[in-house]
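Subject: Sanity check before I submit

Could someone independently write out the structure tokens for this chain? I want to compare against mine line by line before I put it in a report. The sequence has 383 residues.
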Amino acid sequence: MTRFKFLTIFILFIATFNANAAFEINARTAILQDYLSGEILYEKDPHKSIYPASMTKIMTAIVAFDLINSGDLDLNDNFIVSENAWRLSSAGYSSMFIMVGDQVSVEDLLKGIIIASGNDACVALAEGIAGTEDEFAILMTAKAKEIGMMNTNFANSSGINNTENVSTVKDIMIMSSYLIKNFPDKYKYFSEKEFTWDRTGGDPITQGNRNPLLYKNLGADGIKTGYLAVERYSLASSVYINGRRLIAVGSGFDSKNARSKESVKLLTWGLTNFDLVEIAKSNIAIGEAEVWLGKKKIVNTYVKNDIYKTIPKARRKFLKVTINYRGPIEAPIKKDTIIGKLKVSYKDELVEEYDLLAYEDVKRLNIFSRVFKSINFLIWGDV
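---
Independent answer below. Compare away.
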């Protein structure tokens, strides 16, 4: 009675591709990811160690956002500015221009960090949360390891002047993706183009966001620039257009202009050379499986996670997506039970497979109905 069942859901197009072919970015190291599929479209020495400079501030914000979400910190909490933090308001540093003794809200400090790239705001926030910047850096590195940034060590909250503050563009990409996924409401700070600080003892200071891509018609909504003399210019950037997001990270650009130009080039290349295709959405019925001796003849199926594939526009081949299960499946069936596989294949070669789960409960027929059904099957072969 049991047999394998195959149900073709739909046909798409895909091809294995060499993302780096005939394309080059003028940076020491770079990476480009299609956010929803997670696929890497371009990489250039992505594991090379770099000094992340002010891209470090992404993790400073993440640690604060975690505490806000857990209820241990509030945007309206005030921290008192220390002399240690104030010293980074001096000439030569990116600053929010806070003063010793100022009581500054967490939200203003976050805006000073994210929009104005204030090193002084970083120290004030770090000290307010952890007591010292060194202790805060331990929290940053622990969070980095937790989310898979295995080649990163944070030595301070700002990214300036410390040879032990190291990362890679791959890790910065992981961090950026984590930020966007886990804090969608707070990520909006990274797209704000200016911040006005009503400072103590002087006129308000308005500073623009240092991310040059926000001022271009590209769909950019973040993330963070960086600069150190030894590392030169760097940028973690993201664009969001028509439901699709790309994340790019580059380091070792020769100039501000090159940082902007090459990052736009990389993101544009990804948008124009690849398509994103939705294969399945989590917790939404995607197909049916036959049921034996159940009160329903079929059971709907689903997958736990969204499934997307990135498709090169220039080289497309047929991709088959099928439901594969050993069936019909005997009732009773409990919701969320694994009943088969969703298989993605290219020609006759399996590309990926995912657990297929029952979308609903299916109860077993009563004894009389089961006997009748079984006799019917023996006589007619009708299940």
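---
OP: Matches mine. For the report I'm noting this point. The longest helix spans residues 256-273.
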